[in-house]
From TrEMBL:
Bilayer-crossing regions: 27-45, 66-89, 109-129, 136-156, 162-184, 350-368, 375-396
Record membrane topology: Multi-pass membrane protein
Source organism (scientific name): Candidatus Brocadia sinica JPN1
Record localization: Membrane
Location (main, coarse): membrane
Alphabetical keyword list: Membrane, Phosphate transport, Transmembrane, Transmembrane helix, Transport
Protein name (database record): Phosphate transporter
Sequence similarity: Belongs to the inorganic phosphate transporter (PiT) (TC 2.A.20) family.
């Protein structure tokens, strides 16, 4: 009986140590989760930011530097706007309907999903393939969920809420892109607007050898009239004529920039809440601060690591002129904003590639080999993201 109070105090101390240890573990896990989410935002920006302005670069409307800065500014604006009008996607990507709450709310599970998706997107970025962060996140949820509870994953919700929009969106974009381009082309022809190729003629410097015998190795600099001949990739197709009393080329360039900004804005609006959903476990972090952190990570990734994906999206899928680029952007912007408003997890990548593919089909200038490689990268994303997230969840569970 004399030792009973002492045993009680020892038990209390052990409980306190256990609680303190658990609190420290949770705090460390949440710090890792926040860092992993920022890394995912960076990877997303590197792979996705340029997709909105790819048509500007591909049609030679502007250079890479101006295109990526325009994408960064408008994507950041879309990310901030998502705080107010796209909260439904935060709920969708929290995993609450796909898995039991005890699993979806665990730091280990969310961290595994985040790291798995980020690694998948970054691998694709380094190799130059435009894949979907939405796709990667969805499959990472399934991979970690399968490791956690096996076949108890709610596959009905997975099909209707996630995979159905992801599968249908590129098909719809292909159809809309082809039809809208044909309509716009007929309007252009009916309005009397023609297409021309620019040809640069003017004075240029030329180094020629001197004929003086005393200086056989001397040279002199002369001016001559010449014609600049360049590769087809650097030729610039322009529109000549007026539409509603305005210069058609200047008007189209203005609309093209606006449409690229709309697509980038829509991408920020659609993608930011999906990534922020991973931060819901950090109770002391307000959602709007989480969105600001994600927006900053996406901006940094786009500015520092977007070049390879930019080349694929701008130059390899199909050759574009100004009108075709504007049409592709218009289709992508409309579909992504519509999906964001109704909480549908479509992929900006799938929609933008689908619209470019539709334009290429209508013009007959599609690069089938590149399209097939991109499709293969999308299918490869499935097992890679699932394996990454499932393995990381297993490792974290052991630790």
């Amino acid at each position: 009986m004399e030792n009973s109070p002492q045993r009680h105090r020892d038990t209390e101390k052990r409980c306190e140590k256990h609680i303190a240890h658990k609190d420290i573990k949770n705090m460390v896990m949440l710090i890792i989760l926040f860092s992993a989410t920022c890394f995912l935002a960076y990877s997303n920006g590197a792979n996705d930011n340029f997709k909105g302005v790819a048509t500007l670069f591909g049609s030679r409307t502007t250079n890479y530097k101006y295109a990526i800065w325009w994408a960064t500014i408008t994507t950041f604006a879309g990310s901030l706007t998502s705080i107010f009008i796209a909260y439904g996607l935060v709920t969708t990507f929290s995993g609450k309907n796909l898995l039991p709450h005890t699993i979806a709310d665990s730091p280990e599970f969310v961290t595994a999903v985040t790291i798995g998706a980020a690694m998948t997107v970054m691998v694709a970025t380094v190799t130059g393939f435009p894949i979907s962060t939405t796709h990667s996140l969805t499959v990472a949820l399934v991979g970690a969920g399968f490791t956690a509870i096996g076949l108890q994953v709610n596959f009905a919700v997975l099909g209707s809420t996630f995979f159905l929009p992801l599968l249908l969106s590129p098909v719809i974009a292909i159809a809309f892109g082809s039809i809208l381009y044909i309509i716009f082309r007929r309007i252009r022809i009916h309005s009397g607007i023609t297409k021309e190729w620019c040809l640069c003629v003017g004075e240029r410097g030329k180094v020629i050898p001197s004929c003086k015998p005393a200086a056989p190795l001397s040279v002199k600099y002369s001016s001559t009239i010449g014609i600049t001949i360049d590769t087809q990739e650097n030729c610039r197709e322009i529109y000549k004529g007026y539409f509603l009393g305005m210069n058609s080329q200047k008007s189209l360039d203005y609309l093209h920039f606006c449409s690229a900004g709309v697509v980038s804005f829509a991408r920020g609006l659609n993608d930011t809440p999906k990534i922020v959903a991973l931060l819901l476990l950090i109770k002391g972090l307000p959602v709007h601060w989480g969105m600001l952190a994600v927006a900053g990570g996406m901006a940094a990734g786009g500015l520092l690591n977007a070049r390879k994906v930019a080349e694929t999206m701008s130059n390899k899928i199909t050759k574009l002129n100004h009108g075709q680029g504007f049409t592709a952007n218009l289709v992508t912007g409309i579909l992504v904003i519509f999906a964001s408003k109704f909480g549908m997890p479509v992929s900006t990548t799938h929609v933008s590639v689908g619209s470019l593919f539709g334009i290429g089909l209508a013009t007959g200038r599609i690069n089938i080999r590149i399209v097939l490689e991109i499709l293969l990268s999308w299918f490869t994303t499935l097992p890679i993201a699932a394996i990454f997230s499932g393995s990381i969840y297993w490792i974290l569970g052991k630790l």
